[in-house]
């Protein structure tokens, strides 16, 4: 779109590709005679393990790990970086940089999910399972707007262990979770915790907003990005992506995972088309608050106040108007006098996330109908959605 979040999480840091390597990464071999044998680097507490005690279909942490770990991979992204002397005394130099991230297998065709930022800028991507060899991986497609990428390896299907995908819409605060990845090149490390919060927002690598993000206290560090966050049934509910940007860059008990329901739709498009096209409206908007509505006699007590309209965007072409009068209420700044969006395609909107969700359901070129208040009069505006760059 984008629409500015009203309570963005500041200072989140990407956690994939954060480990520079002098040589090869932890490696893997695939084949008909493959046997996976490795030392498990597992960090769990007795309290966390008790949370995973079998109940109905629930699994222990050990069971979750044994089922999912064979499908978790380590990703080595190799890039050639050029350095120039700002003073021009020395000629440009190049060096090879390698960085690590994580990923996981989703089907017998060899498709692997990881983060876009894990492989960003890489000229060569390799995947390792265990053993001492790496497989070259092709990049099927990537999407910076959701920080999702799909790789593919040429391997025998019986050597691949796809991890089942769950339903992130069912995730609740307090649910036990397990993260498996390769922090600091420690292969297939498992950490356990709970879902600390849902419906968070984080910034994608291109600066746009990712919604419905899962927050967890399961330890996530550099190298974990792209790895799975699993529920107590061993299903992937999220793709680990970020931690807060704090001094030292290590885990502080707060990590963020992109919800798997978002990832599913993106992955389907990447496998089918190699790219994802996102519909784009082109407004920045903030919710109407009770104090705003009361103090300034707004036409609606709910809705979104348009703050900015991107020049040349679908919103601009359709004639949406941004606010012009600057006010400060309870320490927050607003631009009033522009349109107030109250409905999109017949559905009420009272938050920027709701509007983003509605736009995300459409394709570039689709038309949506917006109900707005302008100068205290209700107005219908038809918008032909553009495409996000």
Would you give an account of this structure?
With 389 residues, the protein is mainly beta. Among the domains are: 15-37 and 65-159, Thrombin, subunit H; 279-387, Pdz3 Domain. The chain is 13% helix and 38% strand. It has seven helices and 24 strands. It has helices at 46-51, 61-68, 116-119, 260-273, 290-295, 314-318, 352-360, and strands at residues 12-14, 41-43, 72-83, 93-105, 111-114, 124-128, 135-143, 148-153, 176-181, 189-203, 209-216, 228-230, 236-244, 255-259, 279-280, 283-287, 304-309, 325-329, 332-336, 340-344, 347-348, 367-374, 377-384, 386-387. The strands form five sheets. The chain has a six-stranded antiparallel beta barrel with strand order 9-10-11-14-13-12. It has a six-stranded antiparallel beta barrel with strand order 3-4-5-8-7-6. Strands 16, 17, 20, 21, 22 and 23 form a six-stranded antiparallel beta sheet that branches. β18 and β19 form a beta hairpin. The longest helix has 14 residues, at 260-273. The N and C termini lie close together (10 Å).
What's this entry about, in short?
By secondary structure, this protein is mainly beta. Helices cover 13% and strands 38% of the residues. The chain has helices spanning 46-51, 61-68, 116-119, 260-273, 290-295, 314-318, 352-360, and strands at residues 12-14, 41-43, 72-83, 93-105, 111-114, 124-128, 135-143, 148-153, 176-181, 189-203, 209-216, 228-230, 236-244, 255-259, 279-280, 283-287, 304-309, 325-329, 332-336, 340-344, 347-348, 367-374, 377-384, 386-387.
């Amino acid at each position: 779109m984008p629409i500015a979040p009203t309570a963005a999480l500041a200072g989140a840091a990407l956690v994939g590709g954060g480990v520079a390597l002098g040589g090869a990464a932890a490696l893997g071999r695939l084949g008909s005679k493959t046997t996976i044998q490795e030392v498990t680097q597992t960090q769990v507490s007795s309290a966390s393990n008790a949370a995973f005690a079998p109940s109905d279909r629930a699994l222990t942490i050990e069971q979750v790990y044994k089922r999912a770990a064979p499908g978790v991979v380590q990703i080595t992204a190799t890039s050639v970086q050029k350095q120039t002397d700002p003073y021009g005394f020395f000629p440009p130099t190049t060096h090879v940089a390698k960085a690590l991230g994580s990923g996981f297998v989703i089907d017998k065709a060899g498709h692997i999910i990881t983060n876009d930022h894990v492989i960003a800028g890489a000229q060569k991507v390799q995947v390792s399972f265990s053993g001492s060899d790496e497989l070259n991986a092709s990049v099927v497609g990537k999407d910076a707007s959701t920080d999702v990428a799909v790789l593919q390896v040429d391997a025998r299907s019986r050597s691949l262990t796809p991890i089942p995908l769950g339903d992130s819409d069912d995730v609740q605060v307090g649910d036990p979770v397990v993260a498996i990845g390769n922090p600091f090149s420690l292969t297939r490390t498992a950490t356990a915790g709970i879902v600390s919060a849902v419906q968070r927002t984080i910034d994608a690598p291109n600066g746009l907003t990712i919604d419905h993000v899962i927050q967890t206290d399961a330890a996530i560090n550099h190298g974990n990005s792209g790895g799975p966050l699993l529920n107590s049934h061993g299903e992937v509910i999220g793709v680990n992506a970020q931690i807060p940007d704090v001094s030292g860059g290590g885990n502080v008990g707060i990590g963020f995972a992109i919800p798997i329901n978002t990832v599913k739709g993106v992955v389907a498009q990447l496998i089918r088309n190699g790219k994802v096209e996102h519909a784009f409206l082109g407004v920045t908007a903030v919710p109407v608050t009770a104090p705003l509505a009361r103090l300034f006699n707004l036409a609606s007590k709910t809705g979104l106040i348009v703050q900015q309209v991107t020049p040349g965007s679908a919103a601009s072409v359709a004639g949406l108007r941004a606010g012009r009068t600057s006010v400060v209420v309870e320490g927050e700044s607003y631009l009033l006098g522009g349109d107030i969006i109250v409905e999109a395609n017949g559905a009420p909107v009272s938050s920027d996330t709701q509007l983003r969700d509605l736009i995300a359901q459409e394709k570039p070129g689709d038309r949506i109908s917006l109900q707005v208040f302008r100068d205290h009069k209700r107005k219908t505006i038809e918008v032909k959605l553009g495409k996000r760059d």
